């Protein structure tokens, strides 16, 4: 390019800082990349202008991001934790899964899903370490009009009564403890036995845990059971059922709780019913239907 | 805390996502931390709501931040590069160094400053590798009323004619090549000999360089000489003089160029003047005063 054809860019100044940066995006950049980059720059500069960080505060932010990056490994994703505790993961999920009111809402997937389980019979007890209060879950998978969806596959997973997933305690918990995969029957029904879920902390020994401490926040997730419900022709639902009496129900550290996902857990004192389930009395029972939205 | 005294938090929803996150900041958090955290969350959520990232785009952002963190080491700070190329470093500098119009403006410090040099005599040639077009720099350090400031210390550093700082090429360039420290005389004057600076790329073999590529941007800094001017009772100035004929003057990749910092470089064809300086003709000459703001 010679002087006459070369583009002239505005010099940087405080008042027009974001415009000066975004003017540099090249002419052949794909539109979505341009849209994302220019929005990031605008909001980032707006944040800096509102906060007016000192040099030391800016450097603290640089060091926080660096430490968060250094904490990431093949088995630990500290930036996803950061996204989770800042509500960004839930916001991205909400944006991508706007559904009719009657459809089951999504919530966060989390890092502990294990794909590829074989199908278990309905009624299977997925608790293999014998810890915790027994729970039976009865569900129905239906469409928005209430018609049953048979042959849906349902992945289920949760922590054990010590607050850990099996994959966090390999060699300690029985393999596949508190995981199962089921299919819905002709009436859309599936059921399984398990234990009442309990709250647990997200990994808080890294920069994100330190940040939570500085913000006066605890690291606990509200007690829940994970579900993925898949059926041909329907939008996959990734969700939880929450225990209604969990002390962290209103302050899940990753903001995963939605009113519609709080289960109606019943405390059953009925020795006959318990015996039929292979439980001792009392035990817990929850019924929760999953309503799937048809694919567009 | 029992149920009656425990605070009730709003559950997360898309419309009030930032408010739900910020409601969790604890009551005893120091006010500045609260101010920064809540502004970050508000602007971050506003960006996500504008961009509406897909799950894949969100994951790409997570991976970009992770890779940027993994690129950081004791000798490479990729997050500072990111801050630089997004104009954030210059914005933070501008916010912290608002000065009267007549005072010399700051610009970016950069990662290649070396502290603790001993003072050189005025007139010293800081170019020790003999490469490049000879340049003489004459300067005066003055206060806002134009009165000379004697005894100011001036740190100077720049790349060699290959576009590298000495610390980037240890064992290749002579030690201390193109660095010097001077003091202003009774008239506020200092001068030194060097070579005309040339443009150079920031390190672009990491995630930030890849990002620049995707944005259709080059990695080049406009040609410049670094200065730090310190004098008791005055605000320290960290700045550059830019070469006016650099092809990247209007598109410095870190946005460091300010109109007032573009030097008036004169091309001198005068054999006598050259001989007096120990130069061959032609050579370059620049005169630039530095105007310091008194400390409040």
Automatic annotation (TrEMBL), chains A, B:
Its cofactor is Fe(3+). Its EC number is 1.13.11.1. Pfam families: Dioxygenase_C, Dioxygenase_N. GO terms for molecular function: catechol 1,2-dioxygenase activity; ferric iron binding. SUPFAM superfamilies: Aromatic compound dioxygenase (SSF49482). Residues 30-104 form the Catechol dioxygenase N-terminal domain. InterPro entries: 1_2-HQD/HQD, Catechol_dOase_N, Intradiol_dOase_C, Intradiol_dOase_core, Intradiol_RC_Dioxygenase. Residues 110-292 form the Intradiol ring-cleavage dioxygenases domain. GO terms for biological process: catechol-containing compound metabolic process. The keyword Oxidoreductase applies. Belongs to the intradiol ring-cleavage dioxygenase family. This is Catechol 1,2-dioxygenase.
């Amino acid at each position: 390019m010679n002087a006459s054809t070369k583009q002239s860019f505005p010099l940087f100044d405080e008042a027009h800082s974001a415009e000066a940066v975004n003017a540099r995006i090249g002419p052949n950049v794909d539109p979505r990349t341009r849209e994302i980059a220019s929005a990031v720059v605008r909001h980032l500069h707006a944040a800096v202008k509102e906060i007016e960080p000192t040099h030391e505060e800016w450097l603290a932010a640089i060091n926080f991001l660096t430490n968060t990056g250094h904490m990431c490994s093949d088995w630990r994703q500290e930036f996803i934790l950061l996204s989770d505790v800042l509500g960004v993961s839930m916001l991205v999920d909400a944006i991508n899964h706007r559904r009719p009111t009657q459809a089951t809402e999504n919530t966060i997937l989390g890092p502990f899903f294990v794909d590829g389980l074989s199908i278990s019979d309905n009624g299977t007890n997925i608790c293999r370490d014998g810890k915790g209060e027994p729970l039976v879950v009865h569900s129905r998978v239906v469409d928005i009009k209430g018609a049953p969806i048979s042959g849906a596959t349902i992945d289920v997973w949760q922590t054990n009564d010590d607050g850990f997933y099996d994959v966090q305690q390999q060699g300690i918990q029985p393999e596949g403890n508190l995981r199962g995969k089921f299919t819905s029957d002709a009436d859309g029904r599936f059921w399984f036995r398990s234990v009442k879920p309990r709250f647990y902390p997200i990994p808080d020994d890294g920069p994100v845990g330190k940040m939570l401490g500085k913000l006066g926040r605890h690291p606990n997730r509200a007690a829940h059971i994970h579900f993925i419900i898949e059926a041909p022709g329907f939008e996959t639902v990734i969700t939880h059922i929450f225990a209604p009496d969990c002390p962290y129900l209103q302050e899940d550290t990753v903001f995963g709780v939605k009113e519609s996902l709080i289960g109606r857990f019943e405390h059953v004192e009925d020795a006959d019913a318990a015996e039929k389930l292979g439980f001792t009395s009392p035990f817990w029972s929850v019924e929760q239907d999953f309503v799937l939205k048809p694919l567009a």
